[in-house]
């Protein structure tokens, strides 16, 4: 395997393709249907925030190991890393995986490796195999196919891509071995062989487990609020128990993984997935609960001071120190509050974005100085430098000052 085609140059596909070109010494063609991404990438510019990655991109372009394109080319392996969102009533949408698969069918030849990295409902690889072999029956048992999910944490990708262990789920043993050969060229973590369905479920279960654990912390935060107990003091105390490890509550759960993947289980196993479904509801409810708290605080301020407060909404992204707003509870809370208080008095702050297509953004220091009510939604590092509370009202939904 020398020539590798990555389909989808987003948060997963682009860094993986760059590291495979650098560490694995493969010749990479990175394919994306978005021409702007392709053009920017070919100029050696990263279209996502990822510390240290742009330098490696420029290095592999210079060495002739990486180029981006809007169309696939003939290669030895094809790696699918396109989005798998949900649609309608939380039904998985695998149409991107399907069209990415269709885009490479005519290039496939005997001995090629076909990998799906996109988080996928159980059975997706079977569906893609049917699509491929319906069109190219001669490839049946003549190509290798494996589902190999990704576990990277945006912001720490250079380290995690190399060091994380990976699950490799081939459609047969030979496919798992071929995929192991590919990943071992640039992954130092352990590679664990399994079948396709187990690998697909493994990815969904990892994120569902996180969702359930966070839901417990979020539920606790709302209980404590009613009971007049500081949850941020309570949790470290409870965690002194040698076998207890409660996570930190936040303003909900966001991102393209934890807030989405559990639905891939609940849609397929509605009767059996009661706890997973409830965790989703609790985490979604926490964002609505925060929005209600903010609106009540504004209302009380108006009643008490006979004027509208300046309100700083601190953070839009789904977690600290990134620019990713997908499924962000902070973004949901801002949009909810703004429906009632849409005026100059509401300042929206997101230091990781220069502009936003809907909201006018305010500098974090300016918003802090001016605000009567400061709502911390995301624990960005910039916000931790803000000192002195004065007579501001603080709503801290992310333990910004780490008690
Ligand atoms: N972002 C993460 O941290 C993360 C972590 C683990 C797994 N995942 C999973 O990895 C997959 C990809 O996620 P992402 O965050 O990289 O998505 P993304 O939206 O950042 O990027 C996907 C890219 O694919 C492109 N694309 C869509 N259809 C295409 C096609 N037919 N051909 C070529 N390009 C196409 C889009 O233009 C986009 O640039 C998802 O299934 C996601 O759940 C994401």
**Biggest sheet, in brief?**
8 strands, mixed
Morphology call: globular
Q: Strand tally, please? A: 14
> What is bound: which ligands?
nicotinamide-adenine-dinucleotide
Query: Which blocks of ≥5 consecutive residues have pLDDT under 50?
Result: none
Topology:
Elements (H helix, E strand, L loop, with lengths): L2 E5 L5 H10 L4 E5 L3 H8 L10 H10 L3 E4 L7 E4 L5 E2 L3 E2 L2 H11 L7 E4 L7 H12 L8 E4 L9 H7 L2 E5 L2 H12 L6 E5 H32 L3 H8 L22 H6 L7 H32 L5 E4 L14 H10 L7 E4 L14 H7 L2 E4 L16 E4 L7
Parallel strand pairs: 1-2, 1-4, 2-3, 4-7, 7-8, 9-10, 11-12, 11-13, 13-14
Antiparallel strand pairs: 5-6, 8-9
Helix pairs in contact: 1-3, 4-5, 8-11, 11-12
